[in-house]
Amino acid sequence: MCGNVNENSAEAISAQVADAATQPTATTHKLLDDLVLANHILFNNGVVDAFGHVSVRHDVRPDRFLLARNMAPDNGTIDDIVEFNLDGEPVNANGHRVYLERFIHSEIYRARSDVMAVVHSHSHAIVPLSVAKDFPLRPLFHMAGFIGTAAPVFEIRDAGGNGTDLLISNQMLGRALSGLFKSSAIVLMRGHGSTVVAETLQKVVYRAVYAEINARYQMEANKLGPITYLTEEEARSCVTSIEGQIQRPWDLWTEQARMKALAKRERGV
Q: Which of 18, 33, 36, 61 is buried deepest, with most CB atoms within 10 A?
């Protein structure tokens, strides 16, 4: 779990943290709007449900990032976006609870200046591959070259011992996770889910969606016999050609999300 609980429910997987003694920095309305859309798109495509989160690096302050307060992703609005520093401290939570696993985001942004967006989820086809010792997530079609030759798996026991709750609940665990994004844009987390990184918000959403699709295809293909996966060279070529076209799915998913939001408003939801 990722701390996506109602503010009145158990506090073990979320946190109420005092705002850091700094002022929030103004950002563009478009970036905030796109982050809200990203949450809705990931929900609509089955990557997140009541749990999971997506963040984006601040467009003015690279030492800060934007992430929703502790809530189900599909319920968020611009008013629910919180600014954080790279210690995982909220700047303007204003008393709202925040995700316990915000350290996934803060430590990746600290370690990787090239990363501009992060998705953490427990998508249903990914989780089984996080615990299958001899069946790693590997790219089998052209839309998933960003996986590389095989996605690494983060074993939290190596950093936190044998008694954790599997959540990235502090900077030390976040730092350990952040070190695994060398050969792949996605890291699976044993018994937990995955984290995906990218240079743009649109690209990280694309990757999170197609990582889940690839995992489903992989398990279906495995029922039929041996699988032919992409080579390392094919994976690189696919990233170059396919990821230059991510505006196409983003525009489609944005329209779907906006239509869904309009329908909800018309129903008075």
A: 36
Write the CB contacts of 16 (distance below 8 Å, at least 6 apart in sequence): 95, 96, 97, 98
What fold characterizes domain 14-260?
Answer: L-fuculose-1-phosphate Aldolase (3.40.225)
The percentage of the chain sitting over the pLDDT mark of 90, rounded to a whole number, equals: 86
Burial of 240 from C-beta contacts in 10 A (0-12 / 13-18 / 19+): exposed
Strand 186-189, strand 153-154: pairing: parallel
Torsion on CA atoms 23, 27, 31, 32, rounded to nearest 10: 50
Domain locations along the chain = 14-260
Residue 156 has pLDDT above 60, yes or no: yes
pLDDT, residue 23, reads 67
Beta carbons of 150 and 184 less than 8 angstroms apart: yes
Scanning the chain, the segments in alpha helix (DSSP H) are 29-44, 102-111, 126-131, 156-160, 171-178, 201-222, 232-242, 247-266
Residue written as token pair 């008075």: 268
Q: Please tell me the predicted confidence (pLDDT) of residue 5.
A: 36
CB distance 125 to 96 below 8 Å = no
Q: If we measure between CA atoms, which residue out of 161, 165, 142 comes closest to residue 230? A: 142
Please return the burial class of 21, using the count of CB atoms within 10 Å of its CB with bins 0-12, 13-18 and 19+: exposed
List residues with catalytic annotation: 101
